[in-house]
Amino acid sequence: MSAAPSDAAAIPPELMDESEQEAEKRVTSLELFFDLVFVFAITQVTGFVSLDPTWGRLLEGVAILSVLWFAWSGYAWLGNSADAEDGFVRLLMLAAMAAMLIASLAVPHAFGSDALTFGVAYFVVRAFHIGTYALVARAEGDAELGRVVARLASTTMPAAAILVLAGAVEGGTARSLCWVLALLVDYGGILARGVEGWRINPGHFAERHGGVVIIALGESVVSLGVGADRLPLDVGVMAGAVLGIAVAAALWWAYFDVVAVVGERRLRQAKSLSQVLIARDSYTYLHLPMVAGIVVFAIGVKRTLAGLGSSLTAVEAFALCGGVALYLIAMSAFKRRNIGTFNRQRLVVAAFLLAFFPAATALPSLASLAVVAAASCGLIAFEVTRYSESRQRIRGGPA
Length: 399
Description:
Layout: H1 5-8, H2 13-16, H3 29-51, H4 55-81, H5 87-105, H6 115-139, H7 143-168, H8 172-193, H9 202-228, H10 235-256, H11 259-269, H12 272-285, H13 287-306, H14 314-338, H15 344-360, H16 365-386, H17 388-395
């Protein structure tokens, strides 16, 4: 998202400088409390894949994260439209938290013995979401909101029902096909049915999604600690921890230094349908690969610290390198959606990391982590140095 001299011209002047804004709705304490369950869900996904990292488990983990993300995203839209601290909304969100917790507890066996439990709990989470939205529309006498909620329910509830079916069917192939169908219906439904009639509060929406990026980064930090647990605190472990936190810091910097600022301004300055489309594309859709990239990296770094004396397996190496690459690609797509141009240097670093992944299976794991850290931190250093003038203007402070 950082702009080169040639790129800076591609960023509209109104996005470069912050203008005065009216007071906007902000994230409530209940929404932050609700997000704690999503934190646990991410931890469960990371632990599930890390326990026995195979290609199949990695795909299952990404699928689980994708359905949980869409459920969380639905509540982000709900909290954006309704007062989450209001009486009945508060109670229904707390009830949904309980159902989300059950679904999170079922994550390690969501494709196995707890498949039906996960499916039913997830269905309840989505039912509370749609039901609360409908009650808000009715309480406010907002017929248009009622219609768009009904349109949303026409795809989200069938998708949730398919996951219940996935838990009831026998056989791994049939269950996997149900998951694929559920994801297609859920994510494709919003595209097919449209977003006409939705309204958002841009400041709140951007803040909520920035918060979930912090949540995912927090999981990468937790994975560092878990990966080093029960290991002697020697030079290798400390070096691995420092390299891991350096990557996490680079990922944080890559998003919050400029991307989050310009993204929120772009969202705020868009009007009516264009604003809602940006919210859907840039936040609901493109933040998923960002979060997934961080979670996949967390899996890789956890396995790296757990086996510092050996090389990584193919899955572990791909998680370590591919997670960061996915994150950078998603942010470049975020810039393309909002500004109209890709971030070339981030795509170059992502391509390097993907090309490096086979070599990471032969090198010592600490050396592989060092390469990922050098590429990530080098990218940030390049952007801060090369684009300091644009960055200073966007942030309104010293370079």
